[in-house]
Structure formats: structure tokens, C-alpha cells
Design brief:
about 625 residues; alpha/beta; Luciferase, domain 3; GMP Synthetase, Chain A, domain 3; five-stranded mixed beta sheet; five-stranded antiparallel beta sheet; about 20% helix
Length: about 625
């Protein structure tokens, strides 16, 4: 292809943001869900969407606020829902987001919108089990066992050390450790100190870890001796948790007694961001406790859970807190990567009753070793497209095992809907997303956030239990994605997923696709825009387009199409080496194609449909 000059694009016409000096009260109308599960519908109209929100760039919105001080965007032509008030700022979505970024400095609610009941915090819930069954095994790792009393005592000691370092409620503590029993002690200790843990993944490039540290403003980082060389500059205090010289054994063994609040931050997990930097999803104690006390875990199938996923991925919410907040046992896999035979060995040797696998790992094991799950009662999988053929093979090989298909973004605390499959004939087509877990509200709405006729497709919104606080340090983005829920209690919110769904004849959700260019790769959610931004920051790279292509297991792989600067002598191997230092492994495309030019649509945008298959 011949190179051509970059076309000039005129600046878009901007509508001025109107702001009044007072806070107006709008008359809210409470909408009644058409049925208990709040499954609503909408006919999708193709439109240009701004970023990844589904909001048309030129539409008119207003900024609203609830009694907890949480801000959100709302269509200007719609009546403001009960419990929300317009603040007098209106304009395009971009203008409203900019306004919120100026006026809302902290996404923490000023008061609890809906006061929690039951245990107020994750560590309160754990402490109740430790008091009842102090000698029960909580953690197994490499032949070593920690009882509930042991884990409680060691976490208390580390929590006292954190308090001595100035950690306080809402502080963030970064954690960079190999998978081990010490890691579980560290995560529980952070919560006991009133702080939130921010997991760092040792597989991340140091640039990515530095971004996460900076974004979270972590005041302390907990490391082990295997991970203590961080490789990047930071201002956090470092504690080496497995260093005999650390003096942790001299700290008090009693609970620190930091006041509990269910609305407090429990953890921040960073996901891919469309602006080229990761965004931190802020999840509260109440969301984790509600998740862990759902009755779907009550039949004993999850009494012994394998902890093998990277703890910077939200699968760890299940692997850690479902067993520990239900009196169960965590079996910690060695830090080395697992394959099918090693997984089979661990499940059998340690009498594991349930295991969660990413869709990609599940598919590979189902293809090669479906009998691997014969000793467990339940296998959980999701986060990406799960091939029905793999589910059929597992259920045929393991008739006493069930498969739970999960759906839900990190913003809704691991999963919001689930579908349990017990017979191979149940997996004879695309797997449904299932039905909501307890306390979750599911809405399928149109562009005006209104319910639509039965049987139509629409965008999925999730409210109720598990909805995150928002994005740490990003109030405008929070206001744009966490909207007023007109079908929930006054002042409640719902998360805009960007996923298109419909309801199948059995009343279950069926996934249709994404509204934007966000995809799941091996269970990780990836904004293609973030990967593209990383490429164009590389020296010698002019433009980039990253696309997702099907893999053999029904998931996706990434392919990057790159245009180099004039005169650049970079090879595809050079580009691959440089990008591997910038992005985590799951975001690095497996194939890099060098082009003279990217194909364009008539309006000057990259024509992804005309990118040649590799």
C-alpha cells in the first residue's frame, strides 16, 4: 500500500454546558418492574456511541445526585428517578463528565444509601467463623495447614503493623506476593486494618505495576522475599511479610478493633481502560459479604476450593472469600502455572469440592482431559465465551459434576447471573447467561433507559447487590457508567455493562455481543483502545488497530495491525518485544501484522471489517 498524508478532521461542534447556581429538586417517578426478576427489554437502534458507554455523543444529559452524594448522568428528557435530584448542569455526555470531574472529588458515599444488615465487613464475617470453629482448617499450602485461629492471629499481627505505619480506613495497600498461605494472611490483614487491598500481578510489566500503584495512591506495599524487588520507583512503605527479621511475630495477636462499615472499600482491582490506562474498580465490603452469603453456596459443594487464579483477577473473590466466609477450606495451588494433568492431581489429592476456571482454561482442559473434574462437585466458568462442546464433554465424563456458567463484569463483584448445567443435553447450543443471583436486579433497556417490548434485544444494566462503588479517582467515568436505577429503591444505582442481550423463551438471558470494542481474552476484560494506545506510544509506531479473532475453544485471540513511522526499520518481532514490556501478557497480541496503511471507512475511521485475516 502507498502511504498517504493524514486527513485533517474538523473539531466537533460543542454545546455549551449550562450550570445554574442552585440545586433543583426534580419530581421523581418511581417505576414498577413488570415482574419480580426485573427482566426488561429493548429494541437496539444502531447509533454512533461515544467511547464505551452507549451514550450518543450529541444527546442531551443532566447531572443528578442522590442523598449519598453520588453523582450520575441521566437523559435530560427523562423524569429524574426517585431519590435523585438534578444539580442544574446539563449538556453532552462529555460536558457532563467534565463537570462531575470538577465538583465530585471523592466517589465514597457521604452516607449509606441503603444501610447494610448482617455482618458489616468481610473480616467481621470471617471472625465469626473463627470464633465458632477455631481449630477447623482454613488454608492448606504445600503440606502446611493454617486453622481459622492461626489465620486470624497472624492477620491480626500484620494488621497491627499496618496501623503502626499509618494505614487508616480507606487507605490502599498494594500486595505483590507469590500465591501462598502468606498471601491470604496479607489480604485479610489489610481488611482488618480498615484499608483496601490493591493486588499487583507479578506477570505485569513493571510499567503497568507502576501505573496501578500511582492510580491507587497505595501508602504501603506488602511483598514476600520472592517479589521484594519491585523494579519501579514508588513512595510506598515496604513490608516483607515472610522475612524472619520483620518482627511481625512480636505484634499483638488480638483484633485491631478498627470500626467496621459495610460501605467501606475492600479492594481495588484494575481492569483495562479505553483511555490507555487501567481503571481501578472499587468494591466494598458489603458487596463481598452479600456475594459470599448468597444461598447458592449453601449446599456444601464449595467447602473446599482451589485457589489458583492470579489474585489480581476477580476470580480470587470467589476462591478466597467463599470458603473463608462459609467455614470452608482454601487449597492453595503452587505458584507455578497449572496444566490439565497437574490440575487433575491437585483436585484429587486435596479433596477439592469446587474449582473456578477461566473460559479458556476450561475449554483446553475439557478438550484434553475432561475427566479432570470427576472428583469435584462443581466447576465454575465464564468471563468469556464458553464453548458448549466443552461443557458437554465434561458432563458426559463426570456425571456427578455440575457446571455453573457465570456472567458479570468486575463492577458487579465477579458475577451477576449464573446458569447451572447438570446434563450434557443442557449444553446443546450457546450457553445462556442464566438468571440473577440473590439481590441482583437485571434490566434490559433502550437508549433512553426505558423498558422495551418482550422478546427484543437491548443493553444490559445491573443493579442491586454487588454493584461497585465506582472507579477509584475517576468520578466523571463513575457518573457515566453507574447510573440511577429507576427500578430499584430510591437513590440506588445500576451499572451500564455495554453488553447486548435478549431473553430466551425460558426466561434466561442470552448474550448477543458488545456495544463497543471491549472484549474478553482468556477471561480478562480488555479494552482494545488501551492496547492500541500502548502500541502508538512505542517509538517508531505511527498507527495501530487491534482486533479480536476466534480461537479454537470459542474464545478470542488478539491480532495487531501496525503502521510504522516513515523510515522505521522495525520488524514485527521488534514490535512484539517492545509491547511485551508495556502490557500484561493477556493483552499482548499473538500476531502482529505490519501494514503500509490501515484501511479507512468513508468517514475516515479505521475500517476493521477490511483488515485481512492473519
Amino acid at each position: 500500500m502507498a502511504r498517504s498524508d493524514r486527513a485533517s478532521v474538523p473539531d466537533p461542534v460543542r454545546i455549551g454546558l449550562a450550570v445554574t447556581g442552585d440545586i433543583r429538586q426534580a419530581t421523581g417517578r418511581r417505576l414498577t418492574p413488570p415482574r419480580a426478576a426485573s427482566l426488561l427489554y429493548f429494541h437496539h437502534r444502531n447509533s454512533h456511541t461515544r467511547r464505551s458507554t452507549g451514550m450518543a455523543a450529541g444527546t442531551h444529559h443532566t447531572v443528578v445526585v442522590n442523598a449519598a452524594g453520588q453523582h450520575a448522568l441521566w437523559p435530560a428528557e427523562r423524569t429524574v428517578p426517585a431519590g435523585w435530584h438534578a444539580v442544574g448542569a446539563h449538556g453532552t455526555p462529555d460536558e457532563c463528565v467534565a463537570f462531575v470531574d470538577r465538583v465530585w472529588k471523592d466517589i465514597r458515599p457521604t452516607v449509606a444509601a441503603n444501610p447494610p444488615t448482617g455482618p458489616l465487613s468481610v473480616h467481621d464475617c470471617f471472625a465469626a467463623w473463627a470464633a465458632r470453629f477455631p481449630d477447623a482448617v482454613a488454608v492448606e499450602f504445600r503440606g502446611r495447614r493454617l486453622t481459622y485461629a492461626d489465620l486470624d492471629r497472624r492477620a491480626n499481627q500484620l494488621a497491627h503493623r499496618l496501623l503502626g505505619l499509618g494505614v487508616h480506613p480507606e487507605s490502599r495497600v498494594a500486595v505483590l506476593q507469590e500465591r501462598s498461605a502468606d498471601l491470604i494472611v496479607s489480604l485479610l490483614a489489610v481488611l482488618k486494618a480498615g484499608a483496601a487491598y490493591v493486588p499487583l500481578h507479578s506477570g505485569y510489566p513493571v510499567n503497568r505495576m507502576a501505573l496501578v500503584m500511582d492510580d491507587s495512591a497505595a501508602s504501603v506495599v506488602l511483598v514476600d522475599r520472592a517479589s521484594q524487588e519491585l523494579g519501579f520507583a514508588h513512595e510506598a512503605q515496604v513490608v516483607v511479610v515472610d522475612d524472619p527479621a520483620s518482627g511481625l511475630a512480636a505484634e499483638p495477636e488480638t483484633a485491631p478493633g478498627v470500626p467496621s462499615d459495610g460501605t467501606a472499600l475492600a479492594y481495588v482491582i484494575h481492569t483495562s481502560g479505553s483511555t490507555g490506562t487501567p481503571k481501578g474498580v472499587a468494591v466494598t465490603h458489603r458487596s463481598v459479604v452479600d456475594f459470599a452469603t448468597d444461598s447458592c453456596w449453601a449446599d456444601g459443594a464449595h467447602r473446599s476450593v482451589l485457589f489458583h487464579a492470579p489474585y489480581a483477577f476477580d476470580i480470587s473473590t470467589y476462591e478466597l472469600w467463599i470458603p473463608l466466609l462459609n467455614g470452608g477450606r482454601i487449597v492453595v495451588a503452587p505458584p507455578e502455572p497449572l496444566d490439565g494433568p497437574r490440575l487433575y492431581e491437585l483436585l484429587e489429592q486435596h479433596s477439592v469440592t469446587a474449582v473456578h476456571l477461566t473460559a479458556g482454561f476450561f475449554g483446553a482442559v475439557a478438550d484434553q482431559l475432561p475427566e479432570c473434574f470427576s472428583s469435584v462437585r462443581e466447576v465454575l466458568t465464564g468471563g468469556d465465551v464458553v464453548a458448549p462442546s466443552g461443557v458437554r464433554r465434561v458432563l458426559e465424563s463426570c456425571p456427578a459434576t455440575r457446571v455453573r456458567h457465570l456472567y458479570g463484569p468486575t463492577e458487579t463483584t465477579l458475577f451477576a447471573t449464573h446458569c447451572v448445567l447438570t446434563e450434557a443435553r443442557h449444553a446443546d447450543g450457546p450457553l445462556p447467561l442464566g438468571t440473577p443471583r440473590e439481590g441482583v436486579r437485571i434490566h434490559v433497556l433502550d437508549e433512553r433507559l426505558e423498558a422495551v417490548p418482550d422478546g427484543a434485544s437491548g443493553e444490559l444494566f445491573i443493579g442491586g447487590s454487588g454493584v461497585a462503588r465506582g472507579y477509584l479517582g475517576k468520578p466523571g467515568l463513575t457518573a457515566e457508567r453507574f447510573l440511577p436505577d429507576p427500578y430499584g429503591p430510591p437513590g440506588s444505582r445500576m451499572y451500564r455493562t455495554g453488553d447486548m442481550v435478549r431473553i430466551d423463551p425460558g426466561g434466561r438471558l442470552a448474550f448477543l455481543g458488545r456495544q463497543d470494542n471491549q472484549v474478553k481474552i482468556r477471561g480478562y476484560r480488555v479494552e482494545l483502545g488501551e492496547a492500541e494506545s500502548a502500541f502508538v506510544r512505542l517509538p517508531g509506531v505511527s498507527r495501530a488497530a487491534v482486533v479480536a479473532t476466534p480461537d479454537p475453544h470459542g474464545g478470542k485471540d488478539l491480532v495487531a495491525y501496525i503502521v510504522l513511522d516513515a523510515g522505521s526499520a522495525l520488524s514485527d518481532d521488534d514490535v512484539h518485544r517492545m509491547i511485551s514490556a508495556e502490557l500484561p501478557a493477556y493483552m499482548v497480541p499473538g500476531v502482529i501484522v505490519l501494514l503500509d496503511e490501515l484501511p479507512l471507512t468513508p468517514n475516515g475511521k479505521t475500517d476493521r471489517s477490511n483488515l485481512s485475516p492473519h
